[in-house]
Structure formats: structure tokens, C-alpha cells
Specification:
single chain; 271 residues; three-stranded antiparallel beta sheet; 11 strands; 13% strand
Amino acid sequence: MNPIDDDGRTRSLYFDTDCLALIENRWKLSTKEIVIENEYFYIENEENKKLIPLKKAHIRSGASWNKAYQAIKHNRFYNLNKATIKNLLDALGALYILNVYYKDEVKKIGRYVDEIDDHYGSEIFLVHIYQATQMDVKSKMDDTCIIDFNEQEYEKSIVLIKYDDESFSKIHNAYINDCKATRERILGRKEVQVFLEENPDINTDSIKAICQQMDKNSLISECQCLNALGQIERMNEKRAELVLNKNTSIYPECIANEGDNPEDILEVNIS
């Protein structure tokens, strides 16, 4: 960044309207929430434990802790009353969040996500964690597959629990293979073969349409194959990880290869 002043000269960077504004534009840190959780802090109102320290911090004089800091820096004698515990905790919280993002860790947590330390390296704060591992499995998979996605809770979160990209791709490929196997089982049924011989104009691209015209929707549940998805569970190939919420896509887009003839025959969700 090379900011220019009103006279066209290169000026120094501003902490808030330059640096924090750049970070806000990339990662939307103004919505990130932390919670005070320490035995030495006696805060009766639970709502007062919740902090959003970078809210409006990218705007000049937008954050009260930064405004207080600037006032005390320029005139400590007259502005010492602005050095409140609230401003101190908000400033510490802002520093903590920036340090977490600066460290930029990805933590592999394997199959089990029950015991996650939400202190995330702090003795004072808890981070807001969003779990995105419960999803519908479909022929086209991306963030839209996440079940009951909560935009507000997502925006509060600093850390995400998600499947790693390799596991996500394996889940998608397994689903495609199970759909193909289910399709072959249905088309291999004698009653289906007889129906198609008697109705040669029927489009065989859609298994659901065939079952509906046969008035045999139960065929899909009778013939469904979940071998590939089951193998991922048995072989412990479904791995999760902790990543920072950087306001980007959680999962890559996975679509079937041309010619695989995928269709949402199976209704499956995983967690």
C-alpha cells in the first residue's frame, strides 16, 4: 500500500483506515466474537462477557478502545479516565484476534470433533467456533450442502470445523459411485427390464422418472447402495480440520465428470 495525501505525497499508513480496513475487506473481522472466560474476571452479566473488539475498528474513531488510546497518548493527564477496564479488554481482544489470524494455523483433528479447545491459545478469551461438518451429500457439492447454515453464527466465528478438501472430495466421489451402483441395481431388476421393453420410448436417463411411471418409488430404497460411503466410514477416511474463517468459501466445488450420469437418487446426509 502506498497511500497519498491531499498534496499528492506518499504518507504513512494509518492503523485503522488503511491497515485494519484492508484486513476488514479481506476477512471481515468486524463481526468476529470472543468471550471472556477466566476465573479472575468477575463479570455478572453474561452479555458483558461477549466482545466484538474489531467492530468499526477500520473506521476513524470507530472503536471506543482505539479512540481512548489515541486520546490518552496525546494527553494522558486530561484523558486518563478513558483508560477503563472495558477499553483494556476490547484492546486485548483485538490484539488477540489479530494474532490468531497472523499465526494462520490449520489444525488437523481427525475423525472426532467433540473435544475442541475453544480457548485457542488464550487464557482469557474463548473464540467463536462454527461447525460445518453436517451436510447433504449430492451430485454437486459446495457450501450450499451444509445443513442449516447459519449466516449470523458463521460471521461471528473465528474458527471453522470442516472436512479437509481431500475428505470432501472422497465423500463426493463415493456418493457418485453409490448412485451409479444404485442405478445399475434398479436397471438390473427383472420388473424394470420388462417395463422398459414394453415402453421403449421411456427415457432411461432418469431413474426417478422410471420408478414414478412404474408407480414403484420404493425401488430406490430397496436397491440403494451405500458401499462406497460406508467404506469411507470404516476406513476412517473422513478427516476434519480447524481453519480460520477468512470470509471465503468453506469447501471447493465438486461436480461429477461428464458421462458419469449422476443424479440425486440417494438422499444422504453426513456429520
